[in-house]
Amino acid sequence: MATYTSYPPKGYRVRMSTYWWLGRWPYLKFILREISSVFVAWFVIETLLQINALIDGPEAWLEMQDFFANPIVIALNVISLFFVVFHAITWFNLAPKAMAVRVGGKRVPGILIAGPQYVAWVIVSAAVAWLLLHG
Amino acid sequence: MAEQIALEVTRFSPERDKTPSIQSFDVPLRKEWVVLDALNYVKDKVDGSLSFRWSCRMGVCGSCGMMVNGEPKLTCATFLTDYAPGPVRVEPLKNFPVMRDLIVEITDFLEKLSKVKPWLIRDKEKAPSEGEYLQSPEQLETFRQYSMCINCLLCYAACPVYGLDPLFAGPAALALAQRYNMDSRDEGKSERLDILSQHDGIWGCTFVGDCTQVCPKHVDPAGAIQQYKLTATQEWVKSLLMPWGGK
Amino acid sequence: MHKRSNEPFVWLLFSAGGVVAALLIPIQLFLFGVAFPLGWLNAPSYDSVLALAGSPIGRAYLFVLCMLPLFHWAHRFRYTLYDGLQIKHLDELVNTLCYGGAIVGTIIAGYLIWRIP
User: What CATH fold (topology level) applies to the domain B107-241?
Assistant: First the structure.
């Protein structure tokens, strides 16, 4: 149950607006980062639909491809792609903040923690692409 | 350079007003003046009833935090010329109740600060005859950044979670808890974790990161909290795998 | 004194999901959502996709790809609802919808992956 501080409510308080996140760019960036999770969930739904089509057979798979070729779906997926990439970049860049890695007493610079993640991203993406294009 | 700049200041007298209002003052635009100088000019020469907190005027006491054009700033470290031609809007620090004009009620923070036990906790104190606690520069380095906090509360003004949920402990309190957790002389990690691994402790934080952006002493409270989340998670896993383990 | 929160459990799932989503989703979304439908690259045939998906590694990969990002969404969306709509007092409802949704999605994923021929 949400309660407020026990301290007597002296002083003038304003309730935070529902649109507080539009007030400053850092807040908007934060909310966009959080909203990216919705597009992540959308991708999972699409993947489940694809698996369902796989189970139903080649005709269902072709119908799935038509679904993906629908301009509205393509537009939605392009937007999703932006958000998913935004998630990846913000995620890799925030990781160094959460981990204080010290070597020989000195803090390892953030880029040495973020960098390997980007490298892993490229390698994994290349592997998946190769499997799908040549596998 | 223009001669003057307009300062739009929040006025609120609890005995007279129901809600705050804005009053505009024209102050000289001197290139070496900070917003605090402008406020003091108003108080000295124009309206002595203008109320605001300040002390050291050099960015170490943490008293003069206010919102300048919507951003939390130390008014002693914010130059007027950066806002020319103005106007400059000066409002009380966000997310705190306003007592009068630009003065806010910070008791909530003080209660939360004492809740995190910001002092060295030891099972046994060393007697002075046994000598000092020794600490290497590397050991100091692990917590020095978090000890730089001047309790100016700009991070609380920036934190949307604190604004939305007044029960949240907030950036500075959590960063100061870490300052003691990471101190090699301290033995209170476990005790603090009991208090802070709660929803109104570290888990309320959603890593907006604005607190770190506005901190004038580069304390990086957001980093401190995320690291603390990692520590709390490690302790949680350990307690799952080894429930018989002592504290 | 106070019992420590069990939040670390969902936070771990959220973090793991975040890593999986960051590393694995972009390329697959790009290929299936943009590159193949627009003809930039040749889409794989039904048989090759089936071979990949039906292999033990493929099934494990798909399960991880579906399960962890769903829990990542659940945790993040839960807090977005708190911060965005200020409905923290409805937290039981929000938790049920978010984590419950992720659990349901995971069960569906498990079932579908098991049924891949």
Answer: Fumarate Reductase Iron-sulfur Protein; Chain B, domain 2 (1.10.1060)
